[in-house]
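Subject: for your reference before the review

Hello V.,

The reviewers asked for a structural picture of the protein, and I figured it would be easier to keep everything in one thread rather than splitting it across files. Below is the amino acid sequence we used in the manuscript, unchanged from the supplementary table.
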Amino acid sequence: MEIELKLQLPPSALAALRADPLLAPLRSTRQQLENIYFDTEQHALAQAGISLRLRSDGQHWRQTVKGRGSSQAGLHQREEIEFAVAGPALEWQPLAGTSFEPTLTALREPLRPQFRTRFERQLQLLCGATGAHVELAIDQGEILAGDRREPLCELELELLDGPVDDVFSLALLLVERHPLVLGHRSKAERGNRLAHGTPPSAPILKAAKPALQPGADAQAVARQAITQSLAQWQSNEAGFLNPPDHQPYDSESLHQVRIAVRRLRVACGPLARAAEWNTAELTPVRDGLRTLGQRLGAARDWDVFIEETWPPLVNALHDAALRQKLQEAAALLQKTAHLQASAALQGRETQRLLLQLGRRLAQPDATATLPTDALAVRLDKLAHPLRQALARLEHLSPARLHRLRIAAKQLRYLTEFIGQQYDPQATTLWLDWLKKAQAVLGARNDRMAAKIHLRALCTDLDRPAARQVHKQLLSALQKHALPELALPPLPAPYWRR
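And here is what came back from the structure prediction:
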């Protein structure tokens, strides 16, 4: 089993990394590696989650097969078989009796080289704080597929033996000193995308229904919620950070990353506290998620404003030059929010919190666990203000409505996390009610955000014109009716049945 943590870095940061006081005193070796990756023209191995590679260091050849495994907060774990071969030709006998044999035997004939990687590798051996042996590899080079090329610059920390916690400790230390970003895709995955001409981003992944065992305890629910929220984040992040060239901007990737971060806040907050799952260790994670959520929220608010609110408002202005000026100002403010969100996603604080989460998930849970019924008190606390406010929604301040919307959102995510443990009809009633509450209360939140954005857009106009234009745009905004501020009675608590 291969266990390694993968981090990306810009080539400009390599010299500082190599001079780091943790690495500089250590003996290092350097290799020039040439790798050939095989698959069928229909990408059958990639679809099966298998990579098949021949590697040359200039003197010897080795063949490697890797399975799909898992990738979580930068930590890759997968089955691996490696052995020496005579030359640049695949050999099959050493794979006899392995789990890879059935798939590879069926596909042996149509296998062809699909892409190559060529890079210099610097190797050093580290000893972790609790005795783990960790191999550090710095790779710089490129991935090649036909006439397509993609630069490669990454750091790998591979656990040779000992506790995996030492790998996270080393990564956290290096992340504090260097601009390292967790890598969620292997060289094989990147090469396959390059060879097939597909963008670096994966298809949009929405929140998955938790796959819980019957009678799962509260800690298992918390772990699964965090794991799936991380997967949603990782899958959608590249679509926002590295959108396809020459295609219109698609706001859905950012939207799904933001949802994943909000779900993580609930999973690491009320869910983990109620389950008594790593509550102290998750405190800095919760703080980091709150800061990140604010940056993503600001960018998402501009997307909603530009795509949904702004078009009918700008059309109400008859001055074409003014419309053009405001359109450009809106696009600039949206782009600025995107850049700030991108910087937050790739920043040191976010990499730290991801490593801290990965570290917690890599540790086994305590044997003493709580039943999911332990979550009932938290659910009661979230439902109470909603139940109390129903009869007087129209008299509540925007700030109070905003807090209710957050409570409804938390209750919805908690219900989605634990709903499988309860009567499906009862949980469906709750989810339907909560979705309606989010829509009704969310429309008012979008209206408040729109007013703030309109004020920002008019800031650069001449003062007399700014007041007039702002008033005109507000008038056009008010003409778009909001959904009625009314909700049906709350269903009976499914968690108390």
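For the response letter, the relevant points are probably these. The chain has two domains: 2-198, 241-496. Residues 405 and 441 are 6 Å apart (CA to CA).

Happy to draft the paragraph if you're swamped.

O.
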